[in-house]
Amino acid sequence: MALPLKLPTLSVKEAATALDVHPSTIYRWVGEGELDSIRYGKQPAEGSKKRGGEIRIPEHVVDERLRRGPVVENAKAGVAR
Q: pTM, whole model, 2 decimals?
């Protein structure tokens, strides 16, 4: 059985740099479902409030977001357009 191909991904910091936003914006977008992500690593202990693992953003997701045009943050509402 062949292993699946590894999907090219970016770290949160790399994705933030590519999209010219703060890394906390990337975390917010992932939490809101605005950006698809993959979580790698150890699962947190039962009852822990931590989510565990590392968040990686697939390159094609960042490319797609870039194709939609520049990211403009509305500071009052915290909404990206």
A: 0.71
| 14 contacts: CB under 8 Å, gap ≥ 6 | 57
Answer yes or no: are the C-beta atoms of 36 and 58 closer than 8 Å.
yes
Structure tokens at 77: 């509402």
The two structure tokens encoding residue 1 = 């059985």
- Residue 80 CB coordination number (10 Å): 16
pLDDT of residue 41: 78
pLDDT given for residue 7 in this prediction: 80
**Interatomic CA distance for residues 64 and 72, integer angstroms:** 16
Per DSSP (E only), the strands in 4-78 are 9-11, 38-40, 54-58, 73-74
Q: Where are the beta strands (DSSP E) in the chain?
A: 9-11, 38-40, 54-58, 73-74, 79-80
